[in-house]
Amino acid sequence: MDKPRARWPWVVLATLVVAGWAAGGRGHDPGSVGSRTATDATALPSSSASAGPSEGATTGPPGPSAGAGDGVARYAGQVKRYAARAGIDPQVLMAILYNEDYKPHDPALQRAWQKLKPDAAFGIANMHKAAFDQTKRGRDFADRDWEELPDDPGLAVEAAAWYLHDLAAQLPAHRATSLTEDQLLALGYNTGPGNMLAFARGVTLGPLAQSYLDHLTENWAAAGRDVRGAN
User: Fold this and answer.
1) Nearest 5°: phi and psi at 37?
2) What is the pLDDT of residues 25-37, one digit of tens each?
3) pTM for this structure?
4) C-alpha to C-alpha distance for 27 and 38, rounded to whole angstroms
C-alpha cells in the first residue's frame, strides 16, 4: 500500500502541470493568414501545405521572460553544428528553440501529455511525428524514431535544422513581402510550408503568426549571443 501512496503526489503534480500547460498559453497559428485561411490542421510532410512541426499545440510561446530561463542556451553548440550541416542560419534555429520553450520538456511529462493528446509534439523543438518522419528520409538520422525526441535534444535540434533546410528549398526566389528569409522560415516552422509560401506572396499575417514572429524578434539577440559564444 505504501508504493501507490508514494507515487500519488507525483501523479497529482503531473496532472496539474499538464492541465496548466493545456489551459495557460496562446495557441500556435493553425492557418490564419490575414483574410485568407490555409488548409492546415496537423503537421504533415514538409512538402505539403501542412502545418509546421510545432503547430497544433494547445499553448503558444509566452515570450522570452518565460522561455529564456529554461536552459535552451545549453544547446547552442548543437544548434551551431547542425545548422552548419543543414546550411541554415544558426541564429534562426536558436531563436525558434527559445520560441518553442514554452512548455515543460521533461520526458515523462511529455509522454504523459502525449497519452492524453496523441498528436502532441515531442522534444525541445516541439516536432510532430509526421514532420519528423518526412524530414528524416535520406538523412543521417533516418533510422531514428520520433519517440526518441524527448530523451535526445541533439536529435531534436538536428531534425529541426533539416526541416528548416527543407522549408528554405521551397521559398521562391522573388517574394512580395518585406519579411526576411529567416522570418519566413520561422513562420514556416510554426504554421507550415503552405502558410509560409502565402506569406512570401504577401498575404498578411494572422494574429497568432504575428505573435510568433514578435517573440522571435524578442528572442533574436539572445539567440545570436548563444550561437556566437558556442563552440
Assistant:
1) -120, 125
2) 333 433 333 333 3
3) 0.74
4) 16
